[in-house]
């Protein structure tokens, strides 16, 4: 699903960027351009970021 229409960024692209190390809104903005045009995508992007970071922590804790 498209999250940022201005830059054509999908939820999958955001998740891939997070998995590759972009773990903040600032990093996602630099890498993908989200939130740099009209700003309507920032709330959805933050939700995806938070959910993905929680998933990463949960997996890390299960492995440890």
TrEMBL record:
MF term (GO), any: 2 iron, 2 sulfur cluster binding
Record's keyword terms, sorted: 2Fe-2S, Electron transport, Iron, Iron-sulfur, Metal-binding, Transport
Domain called BFD-like [2Fe-2S]-binding: residue spans: 2-50
Pfam families from the UniProt entry: Fer2_BFD (PF04324)
Cofactor: [2Fe-2S] cluster
Statement: the UniProt record of this protein carries the keyword Metal-binding: yes
The family this protein is said to belong to: Belongs to the Bfd family.
Listed PANTHER family: BACTERIOFERRITIN-ASSOCIATED FERREDOXIN
Protein name according to UniProt: Bacterioferritin-associated ferredoxin
Organism: Pseudoalteromonas phenolica
């Amino acid at each position: 699903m498209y999250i940022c229409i201005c830059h054509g960024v999908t939820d999958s692209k955001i998740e891939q960027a997070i998995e590759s190390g972009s773990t903040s809104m600032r990093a996602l903005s630099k890498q993908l351009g989200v939130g740099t045009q009209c700003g309507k995508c920032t709330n959805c992007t933050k939700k995806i970021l938070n959910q993905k970071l929680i998933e990463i922590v949960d997996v890390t804790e299960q492995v440890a």
